[in-house]
Each structure stands twice: as structure tokens, then as C-alpha cells.
Amino acid sequence: MVQINFALKEVNCKVVYYGPGMSGKTTNLEIVHQKAPEENKGDLTSISTDGDRTLFFDFMPLDLGNVAGMRTKFQLYTVPGQVYYNSTRKLVLQGVDGVIFVADSDPEKMDENLESYANLIENLAEYGKDVRELPHVIQYNKRDLPTALSVSEMDRQLNKFGVPTFEAVAYTGEGVFPTLKTLAAMVLESIEKIDGRNPRRAAPAGKPAAEAEPAPVAAPAAPAKPRPAGPARPAPARRPAAPVGATATAARPRPAARPAPRPAPAPVAAAPAKPQPRTFGVGVVVTLSVLLLIAAAGVAYLVLGQQ
Fold first, then answer.
1. 73-86 pLDDT, tens digit each
2. Rg of the Cα trace of the chain?
3. What domain count does the chain have?
4. Do 177 and 29 meet the contact criterion of CB atoms below 8 Å apart?
5. What does pTM read for this prediction?
6. Strand 59-67 relative to strand 98-104: parallel, antiparallel, unpaired?
């Protein structure tokens, strides 16, 4: 199963070479390991019997660099070709993302090819996988044999689902990399359809929808603010319009009493008007003084006139 690490931007895929014993599965893997750049390959681990047959599996991590912004790594395995190691075959197939079926072009090996291909379909079915939906290709190896079956005949017997096929001579490297590259492209194409990168593409589409929802929510929020701010105090202004006159009259003096303290400085400014009574007082005193003088003069005149 494809493993995607979005934090590290890595995609890890599992590819399994499947086929009958001695068909060239391990040879394919050895050629890939020999010719792959040093920085793009890991160690090749192989467990073999005395007859130089793979007992369990071969494994080699292969880094294909960046694909669509993700660092793509392939883990390459082979299964044992012997029928009595079917439990190990099944174990190696667990979580597989793509299969390269390596068929022997020797006519005497056709029965083994058919048996192994049927075994592949059966083992995949136990994991709930349909070979028709799983990316896989068929490699017709050992094309250098003088008795090799024709490609058309091998297609007729083996290629029941019309998958891509390749001719190869594995020990010389012929056809090894075209087979692997085609399968890798098929695996990556399947990842784009079913892996976690589609949700990432769908996320931007969902964001506008999420952003569109707050818009109507923000609209009612805007009018809610002016209601408590402005109309809260003008509410008393509606009371004067009510038929209750007492409340209306009571409401008016209250606003009148509030502005009253503001003009309070006016009387302070009018304080200089106090001298006016003083000026009027001085005038009265002067007037009284004049009248007293006139009166005194009149009295003196009368007294002198009698003498």
C-alpha cells in the first residue's frame, strides 16, 4: 500500500517481481541495482539457497527523485519461485502497489508460467485486490533462447487482461529498465487517483465554500453592533411621543438638567457684572450728597434771610 508522508513530501511504493522459479526475477533486480546511480539506490539484500534460487525475497529501495513535487521511492521485492514457498509469496505481496510478472520464454516453462500467474491472481484476491485493477506488466524474459516462444503466442496464453508486455534478456540488461519505468509510471498514475493528494487538491475547492459561509454570518453581525451602540439611548426619545405626558415632561427636564452644569461657567464669566450695583451705589451717594448740600444751602439761605 502506498505510504505518503506529507511532512517529508515522500511517497513510498512497493513493487514485486513475480513469476516461476529461475525465470529471471532476481536477475532483473541485480541489473537495476548495478546500473542505478549510487545516490538513488540502497543496499540489495538477497537470501538464496545453494542452488542460487531466492528462498525468501530480494529487496532494494530505489529513489526515482521528485515526481509532482513529491520525492518518490520504490521498494523492489522478488518472491520465491518455488511452489512450496507460497506462504512466503503471499507475505511478500502484502501491501503491493505494482507487479512485474517475469515469464520464461522457454516453451517447456509455459505451464509453470500459467501456474504462477494463476497463483498471483489467487494470492492478490486474498488481500482483496483485483489483478485487473492493480498496476502490473508482463516481461517475456530469455528472448535470446533459440527455442523461445513467439510474443504473439505468449500473449495469447498469458496476457489475458491486455496489460503492457516487454521483451527482455535480463542478464544483459535488455528490457529491464523499460519494464520498470512503465510500471513505475502506472503506479504513480494510480496514486494520483486514489491517494491522499486528491484531498489536497480538493481542499482549495472546499475553502471558498468555507469562506462563503462566514460572509452571511458576518452580515448580521454588522447590524447587531449599531443597535446596542446608537439606538440604546435614543429609546427615551420615543417615550415623549407616548401618551404619558408626565413621563415626557419628566424626561425633558432631565436632559435640561444635564446641559445646566455646562453653562455654569457663564455666570462665572458674568461675575464682573457685580461692580454695576457698586457704580449705581456711588451715583446714589453722590446724588444724595448733592441733595444734602442743596438742602443745607437752602436751610442756610432761609436762616440768613430771617436774620
1. 888 998 887 767 78
2. 53
3. 1
4. no
5. 0.60
6. unpaired
